[in-house]
Amino acid sequence: MSNNVTVIGAGLAGCEAAYAIANAGIPVTLIDMKPDKYTPAHRSPLFAELVCSNSLKAARIESAAGLLKEEMARMGSVCVAVARECAVPAGGALAVDRDRFAQGVTDRIRNHPNVTVLHREVTEIPTEGVTVVATGPLTSDALAASIAKRFGTGLSFYDAAAPIVTADSIDMNSAFRASRYDREESGEGDYINCPMNKAEYEAFHAELIAAERALLHVFDKPKVYEGCMPIEILASRGTDAIRFGPMKPVGLRDPHTGHRPWAVLQLRTENADGTLYNLVGFQTNLKFAEQKRVFSMIPALKNAEFVRYGVMHRNTFLDSPRLLSATFSLNSEPRLFFAGQMTGVEGYMESACSGLLAGINAVRTVRVEAPFVLPRETMAGALSQYISDPSVTNFQPMGANFGVLPPLSEHIRDKRERYAALAQRALRKLEELL
Fold first, then answer.
1. How many structural domains is the chain composed of?
2. 265 lies in the same domain as 409
3. Over the Cα atoms of the chain, what is R_g?
4. Which long-range contacts (CB under 8 A, 24 or more apart) does 169-177 make?
5. C-beta of residue 72 within 8 angstroms of C-beta of residue 353
6. pTM of the predicted protein model
7. In 3-state terms, what secondary structure has residue 354?
8. Residue 339 in 3-state DSSP?
9. Which of 259, 260, 310, 400 is deepest in the core (most CB within 10 A)?
């Protein structure tokens, strides 16, 4: 096997992968189709272009986003290093001057003696050599078709996704566990049910159809399929449209009242630990603040902590739990790695982190060394475990959040103290491995 590694795509993930490989003394060829060809979202010829917000989320280590960045910094992240150099005032967040950030990452990549940069569109996955594919959710049509052909149903196209909340933020005094018609596979109710009476439902419905929706770019406007209809669009078809759809109460009886509710939102577990739940059938294009406001009108979600809000856009990503390992390599072909949002991680730094881990493990593949697998107690390790966990069904992208971490051995009631303890445990585990 050649010692040269190929990285396709010079976004955040591709740059992290290329930099990690080059810093290990391995020659790397970074291929990017800019400036010859741009996706509809990109404008700059520079690498690591931030196409949306210039915020990289919270900086505090006691936050999920801050912990992820600190872990990345300790593993040699180029994106975190440059971001900290060109930070702009943003309260508790790490925000950057996006042009300086892209220029700084580009300079470090281009000036590295072990990096060769090529500008051309890649339309096929290389059949030989260690390769990292980091082409993002707007992968060019030709390469996307090649990946789809290679993996059959492994490439998924989703127009909408539902929000996810933490289990311990659900008010179980207002909710109950049950499966519809008492069909239970796990020994107890497979769903957490959030009932509403008629007055609560009608107030919720009125706010839902009036809520402000997010603007979509031209390239983000898909056909609206019935199977992924945004909840607010379905609700606009009539007062009872969602009550006969995703909020139907049939087959359920509220043990608190002894009666069938007027309407029910069902929550389904999102991960093997049961610490996260998604709002079944609640894919949405509402603005994030509106999702928090309107969905919190459901009594059981009045204090819900949203770790991911619903989105609606073109999003191309792999069915990673069936295809990838925690090293971001293909289970069936360990020389081939994927990184970035196409693996099912969501967010700037989450994408960069996947590239960093893919790059580190690409080096180990070249050197025929044992893979670098982070503990599940780390944020980066938990995310890599999430995207490679075959027990995860209805796979949707996930960003950094404390809900993906295994619970502490001791129960800490105060959320700030609990998050601080989770962060300290994560960094301790990381340092032990490093």
1. 2
2. no
3. 22
4. 169/303, 169/304, 169/305, 170/194, 170/267, 170/277, 170/300, 170/301, 170/304, 171/299, 171/300, 171/301, 171/302, 171/303, 172/300, 174/256, 174/299, 174/300, 174/302, 175/267, 175/300, 176/254, 176/255, 176/256
5. yes
6. 0.75
7. helix
8. coil
9. 400
Q: Which residues in 376-410 are b (16+ Cβ under 10 Å) and which e?
A: bbbbbbbbbbbbbbeebeebbbbbbbbbbbebeee
The SS3 assignment for 281 reads coil
Instruction: For residue 351, give the nearest of 113, 144, 51 by alpha carbon.
Output: 51
Instruction: Verify that 146 and 211 share a domain, yes or no.
Output: no
Specify the range with the lowest mean pLDDT, choosing from 95-99, 169-173, 255-259, 361-365. 95-99
Digit-coded pLDDT (tens) for 120-179: 999 999 889 999 999 987 788 888 888 888 876 555 554 567 898 999 999 999 999 998
**pLDDT digits over 366-422, tens only?**
999 999 999 999 999 999 999 999 988 778 778 999 999 999 999 999 999 999 999
Instruction: State the SS3 of 211-256.
Output: CCECCCCHHHCCCCCHHHCCHHHHHCCCCCCCCCCCCCCCCCCECC
Residue at 303: amino acid letter: N
Based on the domain organization, do 176 and 321 belong to the same domain? no
Residues 6+ away with beta carbon under 8 Å from 153: 319
